[in-house]
Design a protein that fits this description.
Layout lengths: L10 H15 L3 H41 L7 H9 L4 H24 L7 H22 L5 H26 L14 H16 L5 H12 L4 H28 L7 E2 L5 E2 L3 H5 L5 H36 L4 H4 L2 H4 L3 H16 L4 H9 L1 H11 L12 H20 L3 H20 L3 H4 L3 H5 L11 H6 L4 E2 L8 E2 L3 E3 L2 E7 L13 H19 L10 E12 L8 E11 L4 E8 L5 E13 L5 E2 L3 H8 L3
Length: 617
Protein backbone atom coordinates (compact mmCIF):
# COMPACT_ATOMS: atom_id res chain seq x y z
CA UNK A 1 0.00 0.00 0.00
CA UNK A 2 1.35 3.40 -0.94
CA UNK A 3 2.06 5.65 2.01
CA UNK A 4 0.98 9.28 2.11
CA UNK A 5 3.71 11.73 1.24
CA UNK A 6 2.25 14.36 3.57
CA UNK A 7 4.71 15.12 6.35
CA UNK A 8 3.20 15.06 9.81
CA UNK A 9 4.98 16.29 12.91
CA UNK A 10 5.19 14.08 15.99
CA UNK A 11 2.29 14.97 18.23
CA UNK A 12 4.37 16.39 21.12
CA UNK A 13 6.15 18.76 18.75
CA UNK A 14 2.82 19.66 17.15
CA UNK A 15 1.38 20.44 20.58
CA UNK A 16 4.33 22.74 21.35
CA UNK A 17 4.05 24.60 18.03
CA UNK A 18 0.29 24.97 18.42
CA UNK A 19 0.80 26.10 22.01
CA UNK A 20 3.15 28.83 20.78
CA UNK A 21 0.58 29.91 18.17
CA UNK A 22 -2.19 29.97 20.80
CA UNK A 23 -0.10 32.17 23.09
CA UNK A 24 0.91 34.62 20.36
CA UNK A 25 -2.58 34.88 18.87
CA UNK A 26 -3.96 35.80 22.32
CA UNK A 27 -1.35 38.55 22.84
CA UNK A 28 -3.61 41.13 21.23
CA UNK A 29 -3.74 44.80 22.08
CA UNK A 30 -5.89 44.41 25.17
CA UNK A 31 -3.74 41.85 26.96
CA UNK A 32 -0.49 43.31 25.71
CA UNK A 33 -0.93 46.90 26.87
CA UNK A 34 -3.52 46.66 29.63
CA UNK A 35 -1.08 44.50 31.59
CA UNK A 36 1.12 47.61 31.75
CA UNK A 37 -1.80 49.87 32.63
CA UNK A 38 -3.10 47.70 35.48
CA UNK A 39 0.42 47.28 36.84
CA UNK A 40 0.81 51.06 36.76
CA UNK A 41 -2.39 51.46 38.74
CA UNK A 42 -2.20 48.62 41.27
CA UNK A 43 1.34 47.24 41.17
CA UNK A 44 2.20 43.53 41.22
CA UNK A 45 -1.13 42.56 42.78
CA UNK A 46 -2.93 44.33 39.94
CA UNK A 47 -0.79 42.51 37.36
CA UNK A 48 -1.70 39.14 38.89
CA UNK A 49 -5.38 40.14 39.04
CA UNK A 50 -5.26 40.78 35.31
CA UNK A 51 -3.01 37.89 34.24
CA UNK A 52 -4.46 34.95 36.17
CA UNK A 53 -8.10 35.19 34.91
CA UNK A 54 -6.73 35.73 31.40
CA UNK A 55 -4.62 32.59 31.73
CA UNK A 56 -7.47 30.56 33.24
CA UNK A 57 -9.95 31.63 30.56
CA UNK A 58 -7.64 30.44 27.79
CA UNK A 59 -6.81 27.21 29.61
CA UNK A 60 -10.45 26.37 30.36
CA UNK A 61 -11.42 27.02 26.75
CA UNK A 62 -8.83 24.51 25.59
CA UNK A 63 -9.84 21.86 28.10
CA UNK A 64 -13.55 22.19 27.34
CA UNK A 65 -13.10 22.16 23.56
CA UNK A 66 -10.93 19.07 23.99
CA UNK A 67 -13.89 17.45 25.74
CA UNK A 68 -16.32 18.65 23.05
CA UNK A 69 -14.12 17.25 20.31
CA UNK A 70 -14.05 13.83 21.97
CA UNK A 71 -17.81 13.56 22.44
CA UNK A 72 -17.98 12.12 18.92
CA UNK A 73 -15.42 10.19 16.92
CA UNK A 74 -13.61 11.48 13.86
CA UNK A 75 -11.22 14.31 13.08
CA UNK A 76 -14.09 16.56 11.97
CA UNK A 77 -16.21 16.20 15.10
CA UNK A 78 -15.27 19.60 16.53
CA UNK A 79 -15.68 21.31 13.16
CA UNK A 80 -19.15 19.82 12.81
CA UNK A 81 -20.05 20.86 16.33
CA UNK A 82 -18.84 24.42 15.70
CA UNK A 83 -20.75 24.69 12.42
CA UNK A 84 -24.10 24.01 14.11
CA UNK A 85 -23.37 25.52 17.52
CA UNK A 86 -22.04 28.83 16.17
CA UNK A 87 -24.92 29.51 13.80
CA UNK A 88 -26.88 31.92 16.05
CA UNK A 89 -23.68 33.71 17.08
CA UNK A 90 -22.31 34.47 13.62
CA UNK A 91 -22.78 38.24 13.79
CA UNK A 92 -21.39 38.34 17.33
CA UNK A 93 -18.33 36.36 16.23
CA UNK A 94 -17.71 38.86 13.44
CA UNK A 95 -18.16 41.91 15.69
CA UNK A 96 -15.92 40.40 18.36
CA UNK A 97 -13.15 39.75 15.86
CA UNK A 98 -13.53 43.13 14.15
CA UNK A 99 -13.31 44.96 17.47
CA UNK A 100 -10.28 42.91 18.53
CA UNK A 101 -8.48 43.82 15.31
CA UNK A 102 -9.44 47.48 15.69
CA UNK A 103 -8.29 47.51 19.31
CA UNK A 104 -4.94 45.92 18.44
CA UNK A 105 -4.18 48.40 15.65
CA UNK A 106 -5.28 51.27 17.86
CA UNK A 107 -3.19 50.12 20.82
CA UNK A 108 -0.05 49.72 18.70
CA UNK A 109 -0.36 53.19 17.19
CA UNK A 110 -1.45 54.88 20.42
CA UNK A 111 1.01 53.32 22.85
CA UNK A 112 3.97 52.09 20.78
CA UNK A 113 4.26 54.47 17.82
CA UNK A 114 2.70 57.78 18.94
CA UNK A 115 5.04 58.15 21.98
CA UNK A 116 7.95 58.38 19.53
CA UNK A 117 6.69 61.86 18.64
CA UNK A 118 6.74 61.81 14.83
CA UNK A 119 4.97 64.83 13.34
CA UNK A 120 2.81 65.78 11.57
CA UNK A 121 0.49 63.09 12.87
CA UNK A 122 -1.99 63.54 10.03
CA UNK A 123 0.74 62.27 7.72
CA UNK A 124 2.33 59.56 9.86
CA UNK A 125 -0.83 58.08 11.37
CA UNK A 126 -2.39 56.83 8.09
CA UNK A 127 1.00 55.67 6.81
CA UNK A 128 1.62 53.68 9.97
CA UNK A 129 -1.85 52.17 9.79
CA UNK A 130 -1.34 51.05 6.18
CA UNK A 131 2.04 49.51 7.03
CA UNK A 132 0.40 47.49 9.83
CA UNK A 133 -2.43 46.36 7.56
CA UNK A 134 -0.07 45.45 4.71
CA UNK A 135 2.09 43.31 7.02
CA UNK A 136 -0.95 41.58 8.52
CA UNK A 137 -2.48 40.85 5.11
CA UNK A 138 0.85 39.65 3.69
CA UNK A 139 1.42 37.15 6.48
CA UNK A 140 -2.25 36.16 6.51
CA UNK A 141 -2.14 35.33 2.79
CA UNK A 142 1.24 33.61 3.01
CA UNK A 143 0.46 31.31 5.95
CA UNK A 144 -2.87 29.51 6.18
CA UNK A 145 -4.06 27.78 9.33
CA UNK A 146 -2.11 24.62 8.45
CA UNK A 147 1.20 26.48 8.21
CA UNK A 148 0.76 29.30 10.69
CA UNK A 149 2.22 27.25 13.53
CA UNK A 150 5.54 27.18 11.69
CA UNK A 151 5.66 30.94 11.10
CA UNK A 152 4.65 31.56 14.70
CA UNK A 153 7.32 29.12 15.86
CA UNK A 154 9.98 31.17 14.05
CA UNK A 155 8.55 34.44 15.35
CA UNK A 156 8.55 33.06 18.86
CA UNK A 157 12.29 32.44 18.61
CA UNK A 158 12.77 36.06 17.56
CA UNK A 159 10.53 37.20 20.40
CA UNK A 160 12.43 35.02 22.89
CA UNK A 161 15.69 36.67 21.81
CA UNK A 162 14.17 40.11 22.36
CA UNK A 163 12.83 39.09 25.77
CA UNK A 164 16.26 37.77 26.75
CA UNK A 165 17.87 41.11 25.86
CA UNK A 166 15.28 43.04 27.86
CA UNK A 167 15.60 40.77 30.90
CA UNK A 168 19.37 41.08 30.71
CA UNK A 169 19.16 44.87 30.64
CA UNK A 170 16.73 44.94 33.57
CA UNK A 171 18.90 42.55 35.60
CA UNK A 172 21.99 44.61 34.90
CA UNK A 173 20.35 47.83 36.02
CA UNK A 174 18.67 46.27 39.07
CA UNK A 175 15.24 46.83 40.58
CA UNK A 176 15.62 50.41 41.73
CA UNK A 177 13.80 52.14 44.56
CA UNK A 178 10.14 51.19 45.07
CA UNK A 179 8.89 54.74 44.84
CA UNK A 180 6.13 54.80 42.27
CA UNK A 181 2.61 55.65 43.55
CA UNK A 182 0.04 52.89 43.30
CA UNK A 183 -3.63 52.70 44.17
CA UNK A 184 -4.89 50.56 47.06
CA UNK A 185 -6.35 47.13 46.33
CA UNK A 186 -8.73 46.94 49.27
CA UNK A 187 -11.40 49.43 48.16
CA UNK A 188 -14.31 49.62 45.72
CA UNK A 189 -12.21 51.35 43.06
CA UNK A 190 -10.04 48.24 42.71
CA UNK A 191 -13.03 45.90 42.56
CA UNK A 192 -14.67 48.17 39.98
CA UNK A 193 -11.88 47.02 37.67
CA UNK A 194 -11.22 43.55 39.04
CA UNK A 195 -14.76 42.17 38.73
CA UNK A 196 -15.17 43.08 35.02
CA UNK A 197 -11.67 41.78 34.30
CA UNK A 198 -12.31 38.44 35.99
CA UNK A 199 -15.68 37.96 34.26
CA UNK A 200 -14.61 39.22 30.85
CA UNK A 201 -11.41 37.24 30.52
CA UNK A 202 -12.69 33.99 31.99
CA UNK A 203 -15.25 33.74 29.16
CA UNK A 204 -13.50 35.84 26.50
CA UNK A 205 -11.95 33.08 24.31
CA UNK A 206 -15.35 31.54 23.52
CA UNK A 207 -16.18 34.21 20.94
CA UNK A 208 -12.68 34.40 19.45
CA UNK A 209 -12.59 32.86 15.97
CA UNK A 210 -8.83 32.50 16.19
CA UNK A 211 -9.08 30.12 19.13
CA UNK A 212 -11.88 28.06 17.61
CA UNK A 213 -9.99 27.70 14.34
CA UNK A 214 -6.88 26.54 16.21
CA UNK A 215 -8.79 24.01 18.30
CA UNK A 216 -10.49 22.60 15.19
CA UNK A 217 -7.20 22.36 13.30
CA UNK A 218 -5.45 20.68 16.23
CA UNK A 219 -8.17 18.05 16.33
CA UNK A 220 -7.85 17.51 12.58
CA UNK A 221 -4.11 16.94 13.00
CA UNK A 222 -4.70 14.51 15.89
CA UNK A 223 -2.91 16.87 18.27
CA UNK A 224 -4.29 17.01 21.80
CA UNK A 225 -6.22 20.26 22.18
CA UNK A 226 -5.78 20.08 25.94
CA UNK A 227 -1.99 19.74 25.61
CA UNK A 228 -1.80 22.57 23.10
CA UNK A 229 -3.76 24.92 25.33
CA UNK A 230 -1.92 23.95 28.50
CA UNK A 231 1.32 24.92 26.76
CA UNK A 232 -0.24 27.96 25.08
CA UNK A 233 -1.90 29.40 28.16
CA UNK A 234 1.30 28.89 30.19
CA UNK A 235 3.42 30.70 27.59
CA UNK A 236 0.82 33.44 27.39
CA UNK A 237 0.91 33.87 31.18
CA UNK A 238 4.71 34.10 31.07
CA UNK A 239 4.59 36.79 28.36
CA UNK A 240 1.95 38.83 30.21
CA UNK A 241 3.90 38.62 33.46
CA UNK A 242 7.09 39.60 31.64
CA UNK A 243 5.51 42.70 30.14
CA UNK A 244 3.90 43.71 33.42
CA UNK A 245 7.10 43.13 35.40
CA UNK A 246 9.03 45.22 32.86
CA UNK A 247 6.53 48.00 33.52
CA UNK A 248 7.00 47.55 37.27
CA UNK A 249 10.76 47.72 36.80
CA UNK A 250 10.42 50.89 34.70
CA UNK A 251 8.17 52.51 37.30
CA UNK A 252 10.80 51.86 39.95
CA UNK A 253 13.30 53.74 37.80
CA UNK A 254 11.27 56.90 37.38
CA UNK A 255 8.81 56.00 34.61
CA UNK A 256 5.99 57.30 36.80
CA UNK A 257 6.73 60.76 35.39
CA UNK A 258 5.41 59.52 32.03
CA UNK A 259 2.01 58.56 33.47
CA UNK A 260 -0.42 61.06 32.00
CA UNK A 261 -3.99 62.21 32.54
CA UNK A 262 -6.39 61.32 29.72
CA UNK A 263 -9.52 63.05 28.47
CA UNK A 264 -11.60 61.27 31.13
CA UNK A 265 -9.41 62.50 34.00
CA UNK A 266 -7.99 59.01 34.72
CA UNK A 267 -4.27 58.27 34.80
CA UNK A 268 -2.88 56.22 31.91
CA UNK A 269 0.51 54.56 31.61
CA UNK A 270 0.29 52.07 28.75
CA UNK A 271 3.18 53.73 26.88
CA UNK A 272 5.68 54.16 29.71
CA UNK A 273 8.01 51.45 28.37
CA UNK A 274 7.97 53.01 24.91
CA UNK A 275 9.15 56.25 26.52
CA UNK A 276 11.65 54.85 29.03
CA UNK A 277 13.50 52.24 26.93
CA UNK A 278 14.65 54.53 24.07
CA UNK A 279 16.86 56.43 26.55
CA UNK A 280 18.35 53.19 27.93
CA UNK A 281 20.17 52.00 24.80
CA UNK A 282 19.41 51.48 21.09
CA UNK A 283 19.60 47.69 21.54
CA UNK A 284 17.17 47.71 24.43
CA UNK A 285 14.66 49.81 22.55
CA UNK A 286 15.07 47.68 19.42
CA UNK A 287 14.42 44.54 21.48
CA UNK A 288 11.24 46.06 22.92
CA UNK A 289 10.11 47.16 19.46
CA UNK A 290 10.62 43.59 18.20
CA UNK A 291 8.65 42.21 21.16
CA UNK A 292 5.69 44.52 20.48
CA UNK A 293 5.77 44.04 16.70
CA UNK A 294 5.83 40.23 16.96
CA UNK A 295 2.91 40.21 19.41
CA UNK A 296 0.84 42.55 17.24
CA UNK A 297 1.69 40.85 13.92
CA UNK A 298 0.94 37.34 15.18
CA UNK A 299 -2.44 38.55 16.38
CA UNK A 300 -3.35 40.35 13.18
CA UNK A 301 -2.26 37.58 10.79
CA UNK A 302 -4.21 35.08 12.94
CA UNK A 303 -7.25 37.35 12.79
CA UNK A 304 -6.94 37.62 9.01
CA UNK A 305 -6.83 33.84 8.54
CA UNK A 306 -9.70 33.29 11.00
CA UNK A 307 -11.89 35.95 9.37
CA UNK A 308 -11.23 34.50 5.92
CA UNK A 309 -12.20 31.05 7.14
CA UNK A 310 -15.34 32.41 8.80
CA UNK A 311 -16.47 34.55 5.83
CA UNK A 312 -15.81 31.77 3.33
CA UNK A 313 -17.83 29.31 5.41
CA UNK A 314 -20.80 31.67 5.66
CA UNK A 315 -20.72 32.59 1.97
CA UNK A 316 -20.76 28.94 0.94
CA UNK A 317 -23.67 27.95 3.18
CA UNK A 318 -25.93 30.99 2.96
CA UNK A 319 -28.72 31.42 0.41
CA UNK A 320 -29.16 35.15 0.98
CA UNK A 321 -29.68 37.11 -2.29
CA UNK A 322 -26.74 39.41 -1.54
CA UNK A 323 -24.35 36.53 -2.20
CA UNK A 324 -25.47 36.46 -5.82
CA UNK A 325 -24.98 40.21 -6.29
CA UNK A 326 -21.56 40.73 -4.70
CA UNK A 327 -18.44 38.97 -6.07
CA UNK A 328 -17.49 35.98 -3.94
CA UNK A 329 -13.89 37.11 -3.54
CA UNK A 330 -15.07 40.38 -2.05
CA UNK A 331 -17.48 38.65 0.33
CA UNK A 332 -14.86 36.23 1.58
CA UNK A 333 -11.96 38.67 1.82
CA UNK A 334 -11.04 40.09 5.26
CA UNK A 335 -9.41 43.12 3.61
CA UNK A 336 -12.52 45.39 3.76
CA UNK A 337 -12.95 44.53 7.46
CA UNK A 338 -9.27 45.28 8.10
CA UNK A 339 -9.53 48.62 6.29
CA UNK A 340 -12.55 49.52 8.39
CA UNK A 341 -10.70 48.51 11.56
CA UNK A 342 -7.68 50.59 10.56
CA UNK A 343 -9.75 53.69 9.83
CA UNK A 344 -11.63 53.42 13.13
CA UNK A 345 -8.32 52.92 14.98
CA UNK A 346 -6.79 56.05 13.43
CA UNK A 347 -9.89 58.10 14.25
CA UNK A 348 -9.71 56.81 17.83
CA UNK A 349 -6.07 57.89 18.10
CA UNK A 350 -6.85 61.35 16.71
CA UNK A 351 -9.69 61.73 19.22
CA UNK A 352 -7.32 60.67 22.03
CA UNK A 353 -9.35 57.62 22.98
CA UNK A 354 -7.91 55.09 25.41
CA UNK A 355 -7.70 51.30 25.46
CA UNK A 356 -10.41 51.12 28.12
CA UNK A 357 -12.96 52.63 25.73
CA UNK A 358 -12.73 49.46 23.63
CA UNK A 359 -12.27 47.16 26.60
CA UNK A 360 -15.70 48.12 27.93
CA UNK A 361 -17.38 45.92 25.31
CA UNK A 362 -15.43 42.83 26.37
CA UNK A 363 -16.32 43.39 30.00
CA UNK A 364 -20.03 43.90 29.31
CA UNK A 365 -21.61 43.45 25.87
CA UNK A 366 -19.92 40.19 24.87
CA UNK A 367 -20.14 38.62 28.33
CA UNK A 368 -23.79 37.62 27.94
CA UNK A 369 -23.20 36.05 24.52
CA UNK A 370 -20.14 34.19 25.80
CA UNK A 371 -22.02 32.79 28.80
CA UNK A 372 -24.94 31.76 26.63
CA UNK A 373 -22.56 30.13 24.15
CA UNK A 374 -20.89 28.13 26.91
CA UNK A 375 -24.23 27.04 28.34
CA UNK A 376 -25.45 25.88 24.93
CA UNK A 377 -22.49 23.54 24.64
CA UNK A 378 -24.06 21.41 27.36
CA UNK A 379 -27.76 22.36 27.50
CA UNK A 380 -29.94 20.78 24.83
CA UNK A 381 -32.11 23.22 22.91
CA UNK A 382 -32.81 24.66 19.47
CA UNK A 383 -29.43 25.12 17.81
CA UNK A 384 -30.42 27.95 15.52
CA UNK A 385 -32.21 30.47 17.73
CA UNK A 386 -31.35 32.79 20.59
CA UNK A 387 -33.32 35.81 21.83
CA UNK A 388 -31.30 38.21 19.68
CA UNK A 389 -33.23 41.39 20.47
CA UNK A 390 -33.19 40.75 24.21
CA UNK A 391 -29.49 39.89 24.22
CA UNK A 392 -28.59 43.01 22.24
CA UNK A 393 -30.65 45.24 24.51
CA UNK A 394 -29.21 43.84 27.75
CA UNK A 395 -25.68 44.07 26.32
CA UNK A 396 -26.20 47.68 25.29
CA UNK A 397 -27.64 48.60 28.69
CA UNK A 398 -24.63 46.97 30.36
CA UNK A 399 -22.24 48.99 28.16
CA UNK A 400 -23.99 52.24 29.09
CA UNK A 401 -24.04 51.48 32.81
CA UNK A 402 -20.35 50.55 32.81
CA UNK A 403 -19.48 53.64 30.74
CA UNK A 404 -21.25 55.96 33.15
CA UNK A 405 -19.51 54.22 36.03
CA UNK A 406 -16.11 54.61 34.36
CA UNK A 407 -16.54 58.25 33.41
CA UNK A 408 -18.19 59.22 36.73
CA UNK A 409 -15.70 57.17 38.80
CA UNK A 410 -18.44 54.99 40.23
CA UNK A 411 -17.03 51.45 40.67
CA UNK A 412 -20.43 50.18 41.81
CA UNK A 413 -21.87 50.99 38.38
CA UNK A 414 -18.91 49.27 36.70
CA UNK A 415 -19.58 46.11 38.70
CA UNK A 416 -23.30 46.23 37.90
CA UNK A 417 -22.53 46.71 34.20
CA UNK A 418 -20.30 43.61 34.19
CA UNK A 419 -22.68 41.42 36.22
CA UNK A 420 -25.89 42.41 34.42
CA UNK A 421 -25.40 40.26 31.25
CA UNK A 422 -24.24 37.32 33.36
CA UNK A 423 -27.29 37.52 35.60
CA UNK A 424 -29.65 37.94 32.67
CA UNK A 425 -28.33 34.85 30.89
CA UNK A 426 -28.76 32.79 34.06
CA UNK A 427 -32.33 34.08 34.30
CA UNK A 428 -32.97 33.22 30.64
CA UNK A 429 -31.83 29.67 31.20
CA UNK A 430 -33.70 28.89 34.43
CA UNK A 431 -36.93 30.88 34.19
CA UNK A 432 -40.14 28.85 33.62
CA UNK A 433 -40.68 30.17 30.08
CA UNK A 434 -37.07 29.62 28.98
CA UNK A 435 -38.08 27.42 26.04
CA UNK A 436 -40.11 30.28 24.57
CA UNK A 437 -37.06 32.54 24.44
CA UNK A 438 -35.08 30.02 22.44
CA UNK A 439 -37.88 28.91 20.10
CA UNK A 440 -37.74 29.87 16.45
CA UNK A 441 -40.33 29.34 13.73
CA UNK A 442 -39.47 25.67 13.45
CA UNK A 443 -39.64 24.99 17.17
CA UNK A 444 -42.95 26.77 17.52
CA UNK A 445 -44.41 24.76 14.67
CA UNK A 446 -43.47 21.52 16.40
CA UNK A 447 -46.22 22.16 18.97
CA UNK A 448 -49.70 20.79 18.24
CA UNK A 449 -51.72 23.25 16.20
CA UNK A 450 -54.44 25.28 17.86
CA UNK A 451 -56.62 28.00 16.45
CA UNK A 452 -59.72 29.98 17.09
CA UNK A 453 -61.12 28.30 13.97
CA UNK A 454 -61.38 24.97 15.82
CA UNK A 455 -64.94 23.73 16.12
CA UNK A 456 -66.75 20.63 17.20
CA UNK A 457 -67.57 18.00 14.58
CA UNK A 458 -71.25 18.87 14.76
CA UNK A 459 -70.75 22.54 14.02
CA UNK A 460 -68.28 21.70 11.30
CA UNK A 461 -70.93 19.83 9.36
CA UNK A 462 -73.26 22.81 9.28
CA UNK A 463 -70.63 25.23 7.95
CA UNK A 464 -70.67 25.69 4.20
CA UNK A 465 -66.92 26.01 3.43
CA UNK A 466 -64.34 24.11 1.40
CA UNK A 467 -62.79 22.37 4.41
CA UNK A 468 -62.76 18.89 5.73
CA UNK A 469 -62.37 17.67 9.30
CA UNK A 470 -59.49 15.20 9.43
CA UNK A 471 -59.22 14.73 13.16
CA UNK A 472 -61.70 15.55 15.91
CA UNK A 473 -58.93 17.31 17.89
CA UNK A 474 -57.41 19.16 14.94
CA UNK A 475 -58.26 22.42 13.24
CA UNK A 476 -60.09 22.62 9.94
CA UNK A 477 -57.77 22.38 6.95
CA UNK A 478 -58.22 23.49 3.38
CA UNK A 479 -57.97 20.66 0.89
CA UNK A 480 -55.63 22.83 -1.16
CA UNK A 481 -53.41 23.70 1.83
CA UNK A 482 -53.04 26.90 3.81
CA UNK A 483 -50.34 29.22 5.13
CA UNK A 484 -49.12 29.41 8.71
CA UNK A 485 -46.78 32.37 8.65
CA UNK A 486 -44.14 31.64 6.02
CA UNK A 487 -44.95 27.94 5.96
CA UNK A 488 -47.38 26.38 3.48
CA UNK A 489 -49.16 23.47 5.18
CA UNK A 490 -50.90 20.50 3.57
CA UNK A 491 -52.66 17.94 5.78
CA UNK A 492 -53.48 14.37 4.79
CA UNK A 493 -54.27 10.95 6.26
CA UNK A 494 -51.93 8.05 5.61
CA UNK A 495 -53.81 5.05 4.21
CA UNK A 496 -53.08 1.43 3.30
CA UNK A 497 -51.63 2.45 -0.08
CA UNK A 498 -48.96 4.47 1.73
CA UNK A 499 -47.69 1.58 3.87
CA UNK A 500 -45.34 -1.32 3.25
CA UNK A 501 -45.55 -4.98 4.24
CA UNK A 502 -44.56 -4.22 7.83
CA UNK A 503 -47.44 -1.77 8.31
CA UNK A 504 -45.56 1.50 8.66
CA UNK A 505 -45.48 4.16 5.96
CA UNK A 506 -43.13 3.30 3.09
CA UNK A 507 -40.06 5.56 3.09
CA UNK A 508 -40.65 6.75 -0.48
CA UNK A 509 -44.08 8.16 0.40
CA UNK A 510 -42.56 10.99 2.43
CA UNK A 511 -40.91 12.35 -0.70
CA UNK A 512 -44.20 11.88 -2.58
CA UNK A 513 -46.03 13.90 0.09
CA UNK A 514 -43.45 16.65 -0.08
CA UNK A 515 -43.77 16.71 -3.87
CA UNK A 516 -47.55 17.01 -3.67
CA UNK A 517 -47.30 19.79 -1.09
CA UNK A 518 -44.82 21.61 -3.31
CA UNK A 519 -47.24 21.44 -6.26
CA UNK A 520 -50.05 22.82 -4.11
CA UNK A 521 -47.73 25.57 -2.90
CA UNK A 522 -46.87 26.51 -6.50
CA UNK A 523 -50.55 26.50 -7.38
CA UNK A 524 -51.30 28.83 -4.47
CA UNK A 525 -48.54 31.38 -5.13
CA UNK A 526 -48.59 31.16 -8.96
CA UNK A 527 -52.22 30.41 -9.87
CA UNK A 528 -51.80 31.65 -13.48
CA UNK A 529 -48.90 29.29 -14.27
CA UNK A 530 -49.76 27.26 -17.39
CA UNK A 531 -47.56 24.53 -18.82
CA UNK A 532 -48.98 25.14 -22.30
CA UNK A 533 -47.51 28.61 -22.70
CA UNK A 534 -44.92 28.98 -19.93
CA UNK A 535 -41.51 30.33 -21.06
CA UNK A 536 -39.73 28.40 -18.29
CA UNK A 537 -39.81 25.12 -16.42
CA UNK A 538 -39.05 24.54 -12.75
CA UNK A 539 -36.74 21.57 -12.22
CA UNK A 540 -35.49 19.89 -9.08
CA UNK A 541 -31.71 20.28 -8.73
CA UNK A 542 -31.34 18.29 -5.51
CA UNK A 543 -33.50 16.76 -2.80
CA UNK A 544 -32.60 15.53 0.65
CA UNK A 545 -34.65 14.23 3.56
CA UNK A 546 -33.79 13.12 7.08
CA UNK A 547 -36.04 10.46 8.60
CA UNK A 548 -36.70 11.03 12.32
CA UNK A 549 -39.78 8.98 13.24
CA UNK A 550 -42.06 6.55 11.43
CA UNK A 551 -45.85 6.71 11.19
CA UNK A 552 -48.62 4.29 10.34
CA UNK A 553 -51.94 3.89 8.55
CA UNK A 554 -54.73 6.36 9.39
CA UNK A 555 -52.34 8.79 11.05
CA UNK A 556 -53.00 12.49 10.34
CA UNK A 557 -49.88 13.98 8.75
CA UNK A 558 -48.94 17.59 8.19
CA UNK A 559 -46.42 18.47 5.48
CA UNK A 560 -44.98 22.00 5.74
CA UNK A 561 -42.89 23.71 3.12
CA UNK A 562 -41.41 27.18 2.79
CA UNK A 563 -38.94 29.19 0.72
CA UNK A 564 -35.71 29.10 2.73
CA UNK A 565 -33.62 31.26 0.43
CA UNK A 566 -32.57 32.01 -3.11
CA UNK A 567 -29.83 33.56 -5.19
CA UNK A 568 -29.69 34.56 -8.83
CA UNK A 569 -30.00 31.03 -10.20
CA UNK A 570 -31.42 28.74 -7.54
CA UNK A 571 -34.21 28.68 -4.97
CA UNK A 572 -34.11 26.52 -1.84
CA UNK A 573 -37.23 25.06 -0.21
CA UNK A 574 -37.32 23.53 3.27
CA UNK A 575 -39.87 20.97 4.38
CA UNK A 576 -40.93 19.40 7.66
CA UNK A 577 -43.39 16.59 8.32
CA UNK A 578 -45.34 16.15 11.58
CA UNK A 579 -47.86 13.68 12.98
CA UNK A 580 -51.07 14.56 14.85
CA UNK A 581 -49.19 14.86 18.16
CA UNK A 582 -46.87 17.51 16.75
CA UNK A 583 -43.93 15.10 16.63
CA UNK A 584 -41.54 15.69 13.75
CA UNK A 585 -41.41 12.71 11.39
CA UNK A 586 -38.71 14.12 9.14
CA UNK A 587 -37.28 17.23 7.55
CA UNK A 588 -35.17 18.21 4.58
CA UNK A 589 -34.65 20.63 1.76
CA UNK A 590 -34.56 20.81 -2.00
CA UNK A 591 -32.96 23.09 -4.54
CA UNK A 592 -34.80 24.30 -7.65
CA UNK A 593 -33.41 25.57 -10.93
CA UNK A 594 -35.10 27.18 -13.89
CA UNK A 595 -34.66 26.42 -17.60
CA UNK A 596 -36.08 27.78 -20.82
CA UNK A 597 -39.06 25.81 -22.09
CA UNK A 598 -37.75 26.13 -25.66
CA UNK A 599 -34.10 25.01 -25.40
CA UNK A 600 -33.67 23.93 -21.74
CA UNK A 601 -30.90 26.47 -21.14
CA UNK A 602 -30.54 27.53 -17.54
CA UNK A 603 -32.19 30.83 -16.63
CA UNK A 604 -31.99 33.30 -13.81
CA UNK A 605 -34.98 33.06 -11.48
CA UNK A 606 -37.88 34.31 -13.64
CA UNK A 607 -39.60 37.53 -12.48
CA UNK A 608 -42.91 35.69 -12.01
CA UNK A 609 -41.30 33.19 -9.66
CA UNK A 610 -39.34 35.89 -7.87
CA UNK A 611 -42.44 38.01 -7.19
CA UNK A 612 -44.38 34.90 -6.08
CA UNK A 613 -41.64 33.61 -3.77
CA UNK A 614 -40.40 36.87 -2.25
CA UNK A 615 -43.48 37.30 -0.06
CA UNK A 616 -42.84 33.91 1.53
CA UNK A 617 -39.14 34.22 2.49
Amino acid sequence: MAQSSTFQLPRPIGAVLWGISVALSWMWGLGLFFSVQFTTQFGLFGLLTFAIPNFLGLLIFGLVTHHLARRQSGSESLAQFFASWSRPFRLVFFLYQLLAITLTIFAFIRYAWQPLGFTPELLYLPLTMFVILAAAILFGEEFDIKRIKYSHGVMFLILAAAVTILIGHAAQKGTGPLSFPKLPTNDWNYWGYAVPIIIGFLVGPWLDLQQWQRAIQMHRERVSIAAGYIIGSSLFLALILFHGLMALWALNWGAAEFVRVGITGHNYGQEILAKVLPVASPWTFAAYAVFICVCVLTTLDSGYIALKWFLTSNASTSNHPIFSLVPTKLLTSPIPAYLLAGIVAVIGVLLKFELEFFMIFYATFFVGYSMLAIARCFIAGPANAIPQVKMFCIGSIAVLIFSFGYFLRSPEMQIVGALLPLGYVIWLLIKPSATEDFANDTAELEAPASSSLATSPQSAVSVASPVTMLDPNAIQHSLAGHFEGKWFVHTLIATYADTNSVGNVYFGMYAMWVGKTRELFFNRVMPKFNLQNTPFYILTRSFEHKFIRETREFETVQVKIRVAGYNRKFATLEHEIYDSLGQMLGKGKQSLLFVSSSDYKMLDIPPDVYSAFIAHT
